[in-house]
Specification:
six-stranded antiparallel sheet; Beta-lactamase; Penicillin binding protein transpeptidase fold; five-stranded mixed sheet; elongated; alpha+beta
Length: 679
């Protein structure tokens, strides 16, 4: 029947045409798919053919190189600096442990374990998460030696083809030896020999069964399973390895039970890594991990080029200062008083030098410039009290309360046990009086002080929302880096730059990986910063920080904390000594104290002078060759206002003859955290 246009409809023919079109489209898609797959396979095969598998007999990858701010070489990091060990020196139990844990069919497959892949896929499917990996030991070696860490299909195919090629080139014993000599075991240990030295202080051929089981437990996630980071997790992983060894017939049930009871190592054995400026270099590695998500594995074996902010001359100078015992107090038994220091550019946040401590600097160990958490004493006052006060309209001549004070049972004392009735804000800062600071924070409100300090990067615990925070009473505390960065905002007219050590990262072919992008924040009014610099200059001119004067405009604040009551009753001394200060160009913070304070190991009563004098030495060297700059003048302020009525509950006076000094001492310390004197 003709349609409206006079054309007959042929349903059967219409269906034939549709089928033909559908078949044609499918054929085209199949042809394109075959072409694409063929092209992909050809590309991957060509790529794999270009891999020089035999280069594993020498250095597998170029080193990662680290440069200072002048682009001069600081350090080279490479797995080639591991200590390769021959196959006949590797305990058979270690090989058995690794095979049982990483690739149980290692001696049966030809580089790709299809059965293992299917088994891992089934286990992961049933669990609903990735519990097992399907990569063989040979595939892991190819990935570590030749390929990037990106998770793409191309890389997985290259890894598989490369593993087959490697199996044609090397024997199984050679492959397991290469694998154990090049993988990362955590704690800076590349290769099994270095791992044995760091974890157990012995050569790999001296390891016991529980020790080889621990090493075999580490490569899957070295930092996650390190006994020095999480002993419980490490023990569970080690015992799983022992279980797998028994399950595969490598050890007996009795051996399993005995080894499972063995303790984990508790002390890391440091080795000579021959790395100059470890305080700075190790912080660079930390920053790569934390800020750029580049793992230690990639750092030590990735062929990176890292351009940093380090001032080599200044770093050298500070390291020499830290080797000079005259700059530090002595303990009765010769135990080393420790210290941490940071110097950074106030206009960029670039860290020019830092010190992790005195003596040997452990690889990625405790870094006293960045990891320290100690109470800052009065050095926190500009950040928590006086900065917020200036922001709210107070000025250097504002009158502050300085009389006996009792706020809900909290009774702070001035370090000299005296009162002056009223003092200006400038005088209170210069002489580090405590009562005016506490009174002022109470007047403003604790939240005003904490919120201001948080904007400057100071970390607080929820328990820090108490008045003793005005004097540095914090549950955890701060590091020199926290303090130097916070004070830098005062020097930079209220503009805060995040402190950092890395400027740029490139790969070995000079392809850009990351560039530091500055994102400064205005954390206070410009006028506030100018007024604070004016006030803190007075501390070095005529206040508690006079001994830190460097012969050019500088501002800063002292900070000390007293011994806790349990020690103060039998010892006269200090717990911590701080000096934090800046010029219009650089900000620096110095802390001195003991890692573990005891009756024998604490600072002397005049210990505050050590941090001030060391800060002075550091800053004088840091400014060599720099022009002396004056701070901009702050805006004029009004004459002193009348003192507001203080919210004070005075205690009834007691006759001196009836005072119990020990009781009074306890009352004074109540609620103040560690220490009484904060100057």
């Amino acid at each position: 029947m003709p349609n409206q246009l006079g054309v007959k409809d042929y349903p059967e023919r219409g269906m034939d045409m549709k089928k033909r079109w559908l078949v044609g489209i499918l054929l085209v898609l199949m042809a394109l798919s075959v072409t694409a797959i063929g092209g992909a396979v050809a590309y991957v095969y060509q790529t794999v053919e270009q891999l020089d598998i035999k280069q594993l007999s020498s250095e597998p990858v170029p080193p990662t190189v680290i440069y200072d701010k002048e682009e001069q070489l600081i350090a080279e990091l490479s797995i080639a600096k591991s200590e390769p060990i021959a196959f006949d020196k590797i305990p058979s139990r270690l090989i058995q442990a690794v095979v049982a844990t990483e690739d149980r069919r290692f001696y049966d497959h030809v580089g790709i374990d299809w059965i293992g892949i299917l088994r891992a896929g089934w286990v992961n499917f049933r669990a609903g998460q990735v519990l097992e990996g399907g990569s063989s030991i040979t595939q892991q070696l190819v990935k570590n030696a030749f390929l990037s860490s990106e998770r793409t299909m191309d890389r997985k195919i290259q890894e598989a083809f490369g593993a087959v090629q490697m199996e044609r080139t090397y024997s199984k014993d050679q492959i397991i030896t290469l694998y154990l000599n090049t993988i990362y075991f955590g704690e800076g240990a590349w290769g099994v020999q270095r791992a044995a030295q760091i974890y157990f202080g012995k050569s790999v051929d001296e390891l016991t069964l529980p020790e080889v089981a621990l090493l075999a437990a580490l490569p899957k996630a070295p930092n996650h399973y390190s006994p020095f980071k999480d002993a419980k997790r490490s023990l569970e992983r080690r015992n799983l390895v022992l279980h797998l060894m028994q399950e595969n017939g490598y050890i007996t049930a009795k051996e399993h039970d005995q080894a499972s009871e063995a303790p984990l190592p508790e002390t890391k054995h440091e080795i000579n890594r021959d790395i100059k400026h470890p305080s700075f270099v190790y912080q660079v590695i930390r920053e790569l991990k934390q800020h750029y998500k580049i793992s230690e594995d990639e750092v030590w074996g990735g062929g990176l080029k890292i351009y940093t902010t380090m001032d080599r001359h200044l770093q050298d100078t500070i390291e020499k200062l830290y080797q000079n015992n005259a700059h530090f107090p002595k303990s009765a038994d010769g135990t080393t008083a420790q210290s941490g220091a940071v110097v950074l550019d106030v206009k960029t946040g670039e860290i020019q030098a830092l010190m992790a401590g005195r003596g040997e600097i452990p690889y990625l160990g405790f870094h006293r410039a960045t990891d320290l958490k100690r109470q800052p004493g009065s050095s926190i006052k500009p950040v928590v009290v006086y900065g917020p006060a200036l922001e709210q309209g107070y000025h250097p001549d504002s009158m502050l309360y300085d009389k006996p004070l009792d706020i809900a049972g909290y009774q702070p004392q001035n370090w000299d046990r005296s009162y002056r009735g009223e003092v200006t804000l400038q005088e209170a800062v210069n002489k580090s009086w405590n009562i005016p600071a506490v009174w002022l924070l109470h007047q403003m409100g604790i939240d005003q002080g904490l919120n201001f300090a948080k904007k400057l990067g100071i970390p607080f615990d929820k328990d820090d929302r108490v008045l003793p925070v005005a004097l540095g009473g914090m549950k955890h505390g701060v590091s020199p880096l926290h303090m130097a960065q916070a004070y830098a905002a005062f020097a930079n007219q209220g503009l805060l730059h995040e402190a950092h050590t890395i400027k740029a990262i490139y790969d070995y072919d000079d392809q850009e990986i990351a560039i530091w992008e500055a994102s400064p924040h205005q954390v206070m009014k410009k006028e506030t910063a100018l007024l604070m610099s004016h006030v803190l200059q007075g501390v070095l001119q005529s206040g508690t920080g006079a001994r830190a004067a460097i012969g050019r405009p500088a501002a800063g604040k002292t900070g000390t904390t007293q011994l806790p009551p349990a020690l103060a009753s039998s010892s006269n001394g200090l717990l911590d000594s701080w000096f934090v200060g800046y010029t219009p160009q650089l900000s620096a913070a110095v802390w001195i104290g003991y890692d573990s304070t005891t009756a024998q190991h604490h600072l002397p009563s005049d210990g505050g002078r050590y941090s001030a004098l060391l800060w002075k030495e550091i800053m004088q060297h840091a400014h060599q060759g720099l022009p002396a700059e004056a701070f901009p003048q702050p805006p004029a302020w009004k004459k002193p206002e009348l003192l507001p009525a203080p919210p004070v509950v005075k205690r009834a006076p007691q006759p001196k003859a009836k005072k119990d000094k020990r009781s009074e001492k306890k009352k004074e310390e109540k609620g103040r955290g560690k220490g009484k004197r904060d100057d």
